[in-house]
Known about the structure:
It is built from five helices and five strands. The protein has about 150 residues and is of the alpha/beta class.
Amino acid sequence: MSNKIIIINGPNLNLLGEREQSQYGSITLKKIQENCINKSKELGLDLEFKQSNIEGELVNLIQSSRKVFDGMIINAAAFTHTSVAIRDALNIFRKPIIEVHISNIYRREEFRRKSLISDVVTGGIYGLGDEGYILAIISMQKLLKNEN
Ligand code: DQA
């Protein structure tokens, strides 16, 4: 049976392609989703891809994921820097989690240099553009393979 993974995207990532292209490039979230689905298929992973602008919805999604998915990749976007609720939900997941940021949050404004989730996830990728999602899928596949 193939491993099931979920990619969760936070606020404003639905507007990729339109917002701050200097930080995020011109790719749309739809195209990132397509690329992620293709890579997951190639690696034999069953992928669900989600986005929400609403903190509580993200918390609900993370909570309900713990019974369904073997691993999680999350770009919590702005909530990375503010949400104790998302951090607490991730802490309950208890399976591999990879944090992704398209931009290098440590080279940006001071308030982005703090991630409230980095110390409750397995690992992270930042500053490598949308390619970060693909690298995260590859790493997740290895993490899950080593578990089985
Ligand atoms: C982001 C970085 C966050 O600081 C920002 O709020 C985002 C996107 C990234 O992918 O680089 O919305 O998570």
